[in-house]
Predict the structure.
Amino acid sequence: MRPHFLINAIFTLLVFSAGYAQVLKPAKWTTEVSSREVKTGDEVTLIFRTAIDPNWYLYSTEFACEDGPIKTTFTFTPDKSYEKVGGVVAINPQDKHDKIFECDVKIFKGTAEFRQKIKVLSSPLKISGSYEYQVCTELTGQCVPGEGDFLFDQIKVSGSPLPEKPTPVAKVAVPANDKKDKVEQAIDTARSAMPKNDQKYTEVKGPQLDPSWMQQKQNQSLLGFFLLAFLAGLAALLTPCVFPMIPMTVSFFTGRGNPFQAMIYGLSIIAIYTIIGVLLAPLMGPETANHLATEWIPNLIFFLVFIVFGLSFLGLFEITLPSAFINKVDQQADKGGLIGVFFMAFTLVLVSFSCTGPLVGSILVSSAGGELLKPVVGMFAFSLAFAIPFTVFAFFPNWLKSLPKSGGWLNTVKVVLGFVEIALAFKFLSIADQAFHWRILDREVNLAIWIVIATLIGIYLMKGFRMPGDTGKDAEDKTVSVLRVSLAIIVFSFTVYLVPGMWGAPLKALAGYLPPMTTHDFDLLAANKNDTPNTICDVPKYSEFLHLPHGLNGYFDYKQALACARQQHKPLFIDFTGHGCTNCREMEARVWSDPQVLKRLKEDYVVVALYVDDKTELPESEWYTSSYDQKVKKTIGKQNADLQIAALNNNAQPFYVLVGNDEKVLVAPKPYDLSVDHFVRFLDEGKTKFKSAK
């Protein structure tokens, strides 16, 4: 295993992520009343409670951000048996600053409660209606709109009906030449342009999804993380704390002539690390990932932790556990037997902590992706690679002679890993910087830091300077080995690759690791970017009030977009989005704006944005009854949401789907993912599949 490959693998480990979604129901609603037996004239409180899944939050009913996320709303069916007293009251919502809409909102986490007082007027009491809401998670960047019906039929009423109040009538003179509201005009214009449908309830077929993709994505995620954690375990073997212990430990077991104990020793190492993963899994699960992805405090903490790890590897200080604790564990190892073997393995884990600790910490941070299984898998893979040499060499002791001798090269590996840790630390600082708009780590600043660090690694490999741990003959000898020169060439080549990024080069291979292009102030290539709009077939429906970002021309109706895609012989890019979807706006601002992505959307696809929360009601001729929930879908948003659920088994936004002219999905759909590189690959794969299917 070459060191540069290990370094690249560890680099990739910290940013590796994958995700897929299905129909989600993160909020469960229940109702109750303050009293089940009342008299006419009494006031009763209707209580709506919501159980919200971990890592999700529900928007409240009232906050100042009018053009932001969808608020929870309650619609009561009018009835003579009651009247509302005031409005719906949200009980103790939390304040939250929405970074995309740049306004303050109110949310609920865990549970939510809303109350509405009503006055009982007569019997029987008929209280019914519906509610709409939106729940989001910053863990995966998804938002899910929802709706439901309520019925309060458990209240018994006694007493005579109250006299009805006369309904006030306001007479308003409206001039005949007054114009309608602009929004109403836009809706009327859109309606008049729609083709009439003689069949009253007709359901759209929609894209055809291969259901096997979901499980494949999940399996690929864990498998990829397993392999990267395994590589990190191999990297740990090449550190000064671990490598010299391989022949010492193996010689101890072979001297006793008991390879079975050596096997137990290796299994004990795996068990110890895996147990650590099991214990930390609840802490490194979805809630941690939620904060890791969005909040500035944990990202700032991780930045400082990685800096400390890096400085430790460079030799500024050593991270060690208390010697008294290590000595007590070591004493247990002297007892012999299987228990003694286990404590010998425990001693190895503790003694090597100063070298393995930063790598283990990196795995645990990277495992904060919303799955309890991931930290366990990561620690198992790391420990498996870590334990293999001790077990293998115990069975084949003659192989020990082929191992290189310990020396200064081990400290070289450690120093290079230290530089890499420091470089990776800025990924976390970048997230905090973007969240608070500090603008201290714009893209070109991050690149400058990486260029300096990569240059230092190259000079160090060429023995241009020493670090505190470089001692002995290897440090005194100025001769540079062929391996060092080869690694230096790779590092300097990487440095040269980074330099054009200072002037606006997209650096496609690193797009997911760097701050977005929108933070780049010194872009000399901007003048050469193509701003020519793409051509479409006809005037899009609803374009009076719906728009695409970055000057893109496209559609807002699935059928119309599909017809144009067939006419232009292009695949269809479907964007399931929402007006109140915070992460949809973030994807548009940070991913769609990238020149590589924008070029592909303009040239290779017909784009359609399907808003799942748009309230525009369609003509009755276009209504249909959904086969999913047996409800009549009357609005643009309801029909788009139903299309996503019924055809794609998904109800979260943002959600991107590539469809061929035969309506078959070309590649696995893509959820929220801020990696430009991943999105470009997604678009390219869809284009290739479309061409091969012709």
In short: Residues 244 and 405 are 8 Å apart (CA to CA). The two ends are 43 Å apart (CA to CA).
